[in-house]
Amino acid sequence: MRHIKEILRLKHQNQLSIREIARSCGIPISTVGDYIQRAQATGLIWPLPEGLSDSQLMERLSPRSDAPEAVVKPLPNWPHIREELGRKSVTLRLLWQEYRQVHPEGYGYSRFCELYERWADTLDPVLRLTHEPGKKLFVDWAGQTVPIHHPDGTLTQASIFVAVLGFSNRLFAEAFAEQQLHSWINGHVHAFEFFGGVTFAVIPDNPKTAVTRADRYEPVLHRTYQEMAEHHGTVILPARPKKPRDKAKVETGVQIAQRQILAALRDLRFFSVGELNAAIRPLIHKLNAQPFQKLDGSRDSWFETAEKAALLPLPEHRYELATWSKAKINIDYHVAVEKHYYSAPSNLVHTQVDVRLTSRSVELFLDGKRIATHVRSYQHGKFTTLPEHRPKAHQRYLEWTPSRLIEWARSVGPQCALVVEKILLSKPHPEQGFRSCLGLLRLGKGFGNARLEAAARRALHHQTCSYQSIKSILETRLDQEPEQAELSLKSPTHENVRGQTYYH
Question: Do residues 431 and 421 lie in contact, with contact meaning Cβ atoms separated by under 8 Å?
């Protein structure tokens, strides 16, 4: 269901083609087209109606009996298209619009571009692709690393994250201590902030932090990476495996960054990643302001005049890195996350849930619905429990406190209050005596407060202040015997009958 929702978002919010959606979601093109047609048939658009559950969404997207007939579309004149692209200010979009004027039933723009690229690849192996302003951002790690010298004498290698805009070629670079998921995500977030906006699509290679299963037709994105893209309103379109020309922009950008930034720092020694980034920033600004060799203007001027306004706005709140995992709700209605235990609704015991973990919060999801939210705790072996997650019996039990128990006992009588106090004081922790005191409360409901008070008086006299003792007194009706009988139960005083010589 997450894929279906993502298909509708990318179709209606990002206006992507079916093929681009299929590459982003890692599912077949035919499946994407099928779900879009089903959604159109039932009137579903993005955003989905509030309160629509996954099961209701699936019901509305039930299979259709009719199938669309295949339509043969006319092919454009590719040699003419290539010739026209050589003329000043002529773009593929303009040529596509002219093609659709002649053939209204012809290919859509994304399919038109894809077919042209496929045809051009057969003629010119070094074809330069034309990118629209604000359309794509190409990202990758540079192959060259920078040594970081630590005070303890150890040496580590910092990795350089590089991002290049498709139209203006404006470049962003940042050093990270390693190439783990949080560095990969933060690199994107910082790049978007550097450009002041978000492109419609991001083109990465196939690292594990981006693609969990690389495939030419159905790549599977890392869930955190996908979530970051959704937060920014963009789409991830991984390059095809072993096809570097799919991301030629960033390949060239990496080469430029290594030659004009890292090479300029080759004789310097850095003692932290922050110190390295402080040295990289002015070189980035210098590179982007540098005039092109064979074109008018610079990366900055192209960006300011044409690409900046075409970018999507930054989200209102900065993306917070989240990792996803799965966990099972234990019999004590808690799940273990990073050695800490967080509560979930008690009626979901033994259910497997999705866990979303950030630096500040822990969220539990079941079938795409959030069922619990907690403030993250870093105390190992401890429990974080919400009262509403406990069973009703547990909730009523935890409402009692020592002072409340004593106050209830006073309403029964002073002897009962003394028994409760003795029970609580006899335990290392007062909470350990709660169960016994609550047992007395139950006895009072069954035998009456008057009998309970009398049984408490007898238990105090014999120094047997416990739940079991008072229960026995009530069940054997000893509480109803007169108090004088208790006082007369003394051994009689008399002389030694046998005499002391009897034991010699």
Answer: no
